[in-house]
Every structure is written in structure tokens, then in C-alpha cells.
Amino acid sequence: MSTGMTDYGVVRDGGYEEKAQTDMAGSGSASPRDSSQKDIEKYDAENQLGQQVTIHEGQAKFQRLSWQRLTICLIVEAIALGSLSVPSAFATLGMIPGVIMTVGLGLVAIYTSYVVGQVKLKHPHVAHYADAVKLIWGRFGYELTSVMFVLFLVLLVGSHALTGTIAFIRIINEPGICALVFSVVSAIILFIVALPPTFHDVAILGYIDFVSIIAAILITIIATGVNAHSQPGGLSAVDWQLWPAEGTTFYQAFLSTTNIIFAYSFAVCQFSFMSEMHTPTDFVKSIWALGLTEIFIYTLTGALIYAFVGQDVSSPALLSAGFTVSRVAFGIALPVIFISGSINGTVVGRYIIERAFPNSEIRYIHNKKGWLVWTVLIAIITIIGWIIAEAIPFFNALLGLISALFISGFTFYFPALFWFQLIKEGKWYQGWKNIALSVTNVIVLIIGMVVLGAGTYASVEDIRHQYTSGEVRSSFTCDSSSYS
């Protein structure tokens, strides 16, 4: 046996074996049983020290996120091809209501995100959204929000698998290839991109994601602008409205509004991201950087493309850029489709592994066993999302319904309740600040309730309309035209 080794493994500084012999020689009375007991105690101490080192290294691994990278993670979560659905929302709402809704809802989202950050600072143990709801609604609220959180993000993974399928169909343009091939490829890419377990590492991909979506938006704006200018009558001949077009129904208008609301749904993952920050107080910089960026991109994209294309603008708008240009735009948008989709799987995976292994080093994903569990978990999440997306013929409409049910809480009424129950100091009427914030949060709460009720109604009507008009595709179909 080499120096520094016992039957129990490595002993630091050479030394337990020599120390045991010295103790026995010095005492003359130590029995083999006493020596064995000391060996066990020494091993337990060494093992405990090793576990402490592992925990420390694991915690350090998951506490490297700067506010700049938090901003990128939030951008990845929030700004995807959904931004190119804003022009169609403008076509339904009209230019003026569209701009007002986009700017106004963006400012509300910034405020509610600020409240979420305040909760995290006041209660550092809150790692995910469900933990925060547990503070106000107890165990029932925790379990309910856990289901909402996991279901919503898994469905988003499935949504991006469908979007990837549409992109590949458009880019390759080969009707003879079964669409399910593209669907499976999309799911595999989402799985691979979701494997990095820390948001610090995910943020590296986020820079590619941001460049991808900005490039796709610019190509679409330029192409639609050039096309409008070349038409008879030029830009002045484009049919766009300042106000909703005659005949616009309530459900159509509110469905378009929920599309804008969905584009600002970044608060759902904010607790998860902030848990990795090395300086959590810097979150304010991130939410302002993200919020103002979103407002600028969404307002400009919605207004310009709507003004260039008019009432017939497609969703996503890059389909209005012409066949060839849209193929190029979809190709450039591939990174944002898969990076923005995969981060949802990563967040769900982190939530599940931390809940399933709260006191195990597996949660830190730093050894073979941890990586095996993590890889299998991400695969299961991706497969479930993909199966649901392919199996449900009206999946996109279902996602709209889920968004109305859940985003109304994550973005609006939960933050309002957080402020009243966790943040507010003193009575609501004590001081102008409390009065102003109380009124603000009551308004936010009302917005959440309206989105919950009217958004659910609009989404159900949309599902009914799709069935009535025959727009519902078949499940697991090879027909490429079903995805258009």
C-alpha cells in the first residue's frame, strides 16, 4: 500500500496510517477495535469534507451569471420569431392601437419584472416561480404553479419544434420529403442545444440568437419595403388602417392583443435566471435593457412591416417577404428558432433536477452520473413537447389558450399579488409612494384578470374557427402543406 492510502481511500498529508501506528505504540493499550472505530470516523470526516467541496464547487458553477448575460438569457427567452407576428396584430388592431398596446404592455412588463426581482432579493431561497407563489399561496400554490410552469415551457419546446419544421419545409422546398423528417430533426436540434446546464453557458449561444433574429427582421423589413415601393402607386397604395378595420370582432382583436402580451412573457423564467447571478442586485439593469429593446424592436417591426404590406400581412411576417427572400430569412432565423426554444427545456430541466435531487450532488451536473441524469431528462422533456405538438391538430391555438391561462398570472396578477403580500411596507394608504404603487398594482391585477378571462374566450373561439374553416391539420402528418 502506497503512502497516504488506507482501505478507505486517499488520506491527505500522508498520514492516517502513520498516525494510527504512532498512537498505538504510544498508548500501548489501544485495541484493534478502537483503531477500527477511529478509521471509520476518519473516513466519515474525509467523506463529509469531500461532499462539502463538491457542493461548494457546484454552487460556484451555478453562480457565474452577470447582468449582461442575464439580459442575453432574457432576450433568448423573450425575443424569438414571435416578434414577427406583431405586424399581423397591428393589421387587426390598427396602427394607433397597435403602437399603444405594444409600448404600454411593454412598460407594464418591465414593472412586473421589477417586482419579481424584488421578491428574489427579499427571499434569496426562491429559485423558480413556483417557490415565490408558495410564499403567498402555500403548498397548493406551489404545486399548481409548478404544473403551470412545466406545462407552459414544455409546450414552448413543442412550438419551436413545429416552427423549425415550417422553416425547413420552406428552406428546402421539396414536397416529396415527409414533413415528419423535418420535425424529428428539429426536435433533435432542440435537444442538443438544451444540453448546456448553466445559463452562463447558454448566454454564449444567446449572442448568436440575438444576431439571428435582428438579421431576419431587417431582411423582412427591407424586402417588404422594396416590394411595396415597386408596386403601382408605391407606398401610398398600401392598404393599412389607423384604427381596426370594419368588421373586426372582439375575439379577433383580443387574440391579437394576447400575441403582443405573449411577446413580453419573460418574467416566467426570471427567478430561474436570477438564481445564477453572482450579483443579483444588478437585475434592474437587465430588465430595463431587455424591456426597452423589446419595445423598440416590436413597435418598429410591427409598424413598418404593416405599413409596407398592409392588411394581408402574414404571420410570421417573413412569409410576406416573397418566396425566395422568405427562404433566406428562415435560414438566417434557424439559430433563434432552436436557441430560443431550447432554453425553455433547460429551465424545466433545472427545475425538475433541483426538485428531484435537492440534497444530492447530481443536481450540480458535474460528474458522469449527473450528466447521465441531465441528458435523459432533457431528452424526455424534448420528446414530450414534440409529441404533444405533433399529436394535437390545433396545437398553436392550444398554445394561445395556455398562454392566456398562464401568462396572465406569470406576467400580471402574480407580480401584483407579490407586491401586496411580500413587498409592500406599511398600509397601502401610508404615504404617496404606497398609494401610487397600490393603484398601479391594482391596475396590473385587473389587466391580469382581463387577459385571463377575455384571452381564454378569444383562444377558444380561435380553436372553434379553425375547425369550422378546415384549417386544422392532421396529427403526425407527412403532408408539408399542412404546416403552411
TrEMBL record:
Q: Which Pfam families match?
A: Aa_trans
Task: Pull one GO CC term from this UniProt entry.
Answer: membrane
All copies of the Amino acid transporter transmembrane domain together span 64-458
Q: Does the keyword tRNA-binding apply?
A: no
Q: Where in the cell is it found?
A: Membrane
Any GO molecular function: L-amino acid transmembrane transporter activity
The residues that cross the membrane are 70-90, 96-116, 147-171, 177-195, 207-230, 250-274, 286-308, 328-349, 370-389, 395-423, 435-458
Question: In what way does this protein cross or attach to the membrane?
Answer: Multi-pass membrane protein
Supply the alphabetized keyword list: Membrane, Transmembrane, Transmembrane helix
Family as reported in the entry's similarity comment: Belongs to the amino acid/polyamine transporter 2 family.
What the entry lists under PANTHER family is as follows: AMINO ACID TRANSPORTER, AMINO ACID TRANSPORTER (EUROFUNG)
Its recorded name reads: Amino acid transporter transmembrane domain-containing protein
